[in-house]
Write a structure and sequence with these properties.
single chain, 204 residues, alpha/beta, TIM Barrel, 7-stranded parallel β-sheet, 8 helices, globular, binds 5-O-phosphono-D-xylulose, metal-binding, Ribul_P_3_epim-like, isomerase, RibuloseP-bd_barrel, Aldolase_TIM
Length: 204
């Protein structure tokens, strides 16, 4: 684990995917493992919960010291109350939406969140192809955030690499999660730098 973390020491965050085999058809790990990563990682953790009942579990990840904890809008019973709880513990509060989930319901509560994750693949597995049909939704969200003077971060996750990061940045994303494009590279830190500079050239 330390070796893998050392390979991405230049990243802004380590994105940690928690999957429960209920909300998504895949299983990773839970709070105990995330606690170990938290103790070991020199880079702050950005925890993405792909789990049912985040209202019950998300605060535990914030208590572990994760910099941000993102839960799915589709899974949460009380998204605003949960975001407030995460913030009260000291984590950035994130909410994620699957590719087919509309974002309009978030417009009036944008300031309750520190980041909104627009999934650019169906959650569950790394290595899938980027879904360009999610870009109009991202653009709408970015326009609305700008109109309201919101400083919420707009994150994309899934199939992000050299050939897709520009369109996500152009549509308004400012935070990018890359798995295969980084860990599949010979030099992950260099891949991070290249992705970062491509994104910044297309950010407006
Ligand atoms: O959460 C997910 C998928 O569920 C993502 O974080 C992917 O794991 C990112 O991997 P690539 O699509 O970049 O390979």
């Amino acid at each position: 684990m330390q070796t893998e973390l050392a390979r991405i020491a230049g990243a802004d965050f380590v994105h940690v995917d928690v999957m429960d085999n209920h909300f998504v058809p895949n299983l990773t790990f839970g709070p105990q493992m995330v606690g170990r990563i938290q103790e070991t990682s020199p880079v702050p953790l950005d925890v993405h919960l792909m789990i049912d009942d985040p209202d019950r579990w998300a605060p535990e990840y914030a208590e572990l010291g994760a910099a941000s904890v993102t839960f799915h809008l589709e899974a949460a019973a009380s998204p605003v109350a949960l975001a407030r709880r995460l913030r009260s513990i000291g984590a950035r509060a994130g909410v994620a939406v699957k590719p087919a989930t509309p974002v309009e319901n978030l417009f009036d509560v944008l300031n309750e969140f520190d980041q909104i994750l627009v999934m650019t693949v169906e959650p569950g597995f790394g290595g899938q192809s980027f879904l360009p049909e999610t870009m109009p939704k991202l653009r709408t969200l970015a326009d609305e955030a700008k109109r309201r003077g919101s400083s919420v971060w707009l994150q994309v996750d899934g199939g992000i690499g050299e050939s897709t990061i520009a369109q996500a940045a152009e549509a308004g994303a400012d935070t990018f999660v890359a798995g295969s494009a980084v860990f599949g590279a010979d030099d992950p830190d260099r891949a991070i730098q290249t992705l970062r500079s491509t994104a910044s050239r297309h950010t407006h």
